[in-house]
Every structure is written in C-alpha cells, then in structure tokens.
Amino acid sequence: MVGRRWFVPLTALVLALSGPAGAAAAPAPADTVPGTAVAAAGGFGDPGPYATAVDVGAVTTLYYPRDIADSDRRHPVIVWGNGTFAFPVVYRELMLHWASHGFIVAAANTPQSNLGISMRAGIDLLERRDADSGSEFHGRVDLENIGASGHSQGGAASIVVGDDPRVDTILPIQPGPLADIDDVDVPAFLMAGQRDSIVFPWLVKRFYGDADHIPAIYGEVRGANHLTVVGDPGPFAAPTTAWFRLHLMGDQAAYPEFFGPDCGICTDDETWSDVRRNALADQFPAPAQ
Question: Secretion signal: which residues (predicted)?
Fold first, then answer.
C-alpha cells in the first residue's frame, strides 16, 4: 500500500488558460448502431468524429458531443480529477479530445480532488441528467461504462474513485501517493513521465507493483515532465483515448495497442521509455466481436 503522506503541487498553470470554451472536432458523426462505438477519425490522437461543447457548472464541468440530444446512442462517461491548485480549464484540450471521440467528460471543479467526492458527484449529476426528460442528456448517457482519470493529485483521486462500483476502469496520470490501489477491482493503466521531478516514475511503479490483483499496465512517457499533459496533451492524447475506447466502447482496434503478443505500446520506443504489463494484463481477453 502506498503511504498517505503528502499532496503534489501543480504550478505554472497559466500555460493552458487560453482559448474559447468550446471547440469543434472535424468530421461529422459516422452512421452507427445505437450503443456501439463510433469509429475514430484517423488515429486515436486525431480528433474524433464529434463536434464538442462545454457546460461549466458549480461542481462539475462537462465536456461532451455538442449534438448529444440528437445522438442515436448512449455515450460513455469519464470522470476527471485535477492536479493540486488546478481546475478543468487547465486540461481543456485533453477533455475536448475525449469528447470528440464520443465521451462525456465530467471534470470536478476543485483544486483539491484527492478524496474523489467531486468526481463521484459528476457521476451523480449525469445520472440525474440522463433521467431528466427535459435535459439534452436524457437517454444519452451510458452509465454502464464509466472510467476515472486525473492528473497528479487528481490521478490519485482516480484511484480512490476506482473502488466505486459504477467505475469500470481507471487511468491515473502521474498520480500522487494519497490512494490505495488495493481497493480497486477494475483494469488500470498507470501513466508516468520519464522526466517527472514531482511525481517520480518510481512512485507510479509502486502503484503498479501493488496492482497484482487486477489487469494493470505501467506506461512511462519518454521525455515527459509533470506538466507535459497540461495544455496540449501531446503524447498523452492517443494512448488515453485508445484505453477508454477499448474499455468503455469495446473498440477492437484499440485492443492491440495494449494487449496481445503484438502490443503496440510495448514496442514503441519513441513514445515510451518503459512499459510493463502484469500477468493479468498478459491474459486480458479481446473484446467480443
């Protein structure tokens, strides 16, 4: 178990505070069968097929497909926790990228997310919106497929929230140590930065070492420091999108990025300085066709 000793400060956040509240992702939505994944436009690091919108609330900021009210499918959910002293706008580009791929992102409006309370509140909010016949989200939220992610302190929060029975997978990005992954029972992709001098890679590896009871992957982004994901998410956009498309949409094209004998991230030395998969990840089955 990782000790509960300190919070991780996140600084220089002004780098990401520019740009309009909403954004448009290039192509129009593809024809789909309700409840199935929409094919990604290009690679997982490219914009997805949905134009996007932002709804800033008191507790939660939502990033989502702009025409969700007219969608013919339900959209999976990603709950997000910020780093210390940060707010969702700092990670705006990553949130909009996920939304362009068909996800509803519920980002906690708090700079102190470690307890995961505001992240759970994001799920509660979307449960209410989905049930509300007057909401544009009515009948459009896939509450059966929910992932949790976050950066730094928020990365630890995504591990904390991982014990919520509504959550199906976690993706902590450079997580601080205030969490216990022993309480998590869903697949985990733990991301570190090779040059992170705030959350050192060995701290993330400790989580990975404790995650032998679940399918877990450790990925260390080559050259990344603690703020690489801030603003333009760069090398974090594609793998995070692929992970969530696999686990929350059943996207078969994302499976070989992480699993099977030809694991893409395992052989991509340009992007990754270290990749590790535990025994349960080695045996992880492909999604049903």
Answer: 1-23
